[in-house]
Write a structure and sequence with these properties.
The chain has 216 residues and is mainly β. It has three helices and eleven strands; from the N terminus they run ααββββββαβββββ. A hairpin with a 6-residue loop joins strand 2 (61-68) and strand 3. The N and C termini lie far apart (52 Å). 26% of the residues are buried.
Length: 216
């Protein structure tokens, strides 16, 4: 009887430990709710001193394009987009920039197949330190001016049904990015879609997001 009692006690102890052990779901890192662009602003090479309206408060239109002379290869009329995300949870070490598009979501690309690649730049300056009323193209470029510490963080193509994390970086309460047609695209190109932030209403969202990885 004594050995049986020891065996039963040992089994009960093991069961208790197993029941207290974290499940894979418990051990998995938790992520915070996505943040969506507070600012979607056009930067136009053709009108370098002009400040364009914040499309986040309007149509949500996102447009990038470039015109390339087929003979000389010279680029002109570049249109870029500034994306600024605010009120980001900063309780963890990294924040990811990514995008989500549901199947059949309307994205207009030229050329259409394959869609032109886009380059993403992180802006190493908190725009809250600037009296923000919009910033024209010539505030940001040339990219090597050093005024805003612009850094290439990756490339991607935007397509319906596609979900992708572009890159991660240290979190801040506000993060800004610039998007343009990639320099190596050898012909005139454009990409257009409407940022649709339905996530807050428990529906699917389409477009860009920033999400902090870690405890919330």
């Amino acid at each position: 009887m004594f050995p049986s009692t020891i065996t039963a006690t040992a089994l009960l102890s093991l069961f208790s430990l197993a029941s207290c052990a974290p499940t894979p779901q418990d051990a998995a890192p938790k992520t915070c709710q996505a943040s969506f662009p507070s600012i979607i602003e056009t930067l136009s090479e053709a009108e370098p001193g002009k400040t364009f309206p914040n499309e986040n408060g309007g149509s949500g239109a996102f447009t990038v394009s470039t015109t390339i002379d087929p003979i000389t290869g010279a680029k002109s009329n570049r249109i870029l987009q500034l994306l600024t995300f605010k009120d980001i949870h900063v309780g963890s070490g990294s924040c990811e920039l990514g995008f989500n598009f549901t199947p059949n979501y309307p994205i207009t690309s030229s050329p259409g197949s394959p869609a032109p690649q886009l380059t993403f730049y992180s802006v190493g300056k908190d725009l809250t330190t600037i009296p923000y009323t919009g910033l024209p193209y010539n505030t940001w470029f040339p990219k090597d001016s050093g005024r805003l510490s612009i850094q290439n963080i990756g490339t991607a193509t935007l397509e319906a049904g596609k979900v992708q994390v572009i890159n991660s970086q240290a979190c801040a309460s506000e993060l800004s990015f610039i998007v343009e047609i990639a320099e190596w695209v050898g012909q005139s190109a454009s990409v257009e879609f409407k940022q649709d932030n339905q996530f807050g209403n428990q529906g699917p969202f389409n477009g860009f997001y920033v999400k902090a990885n870690g405890p919330c």
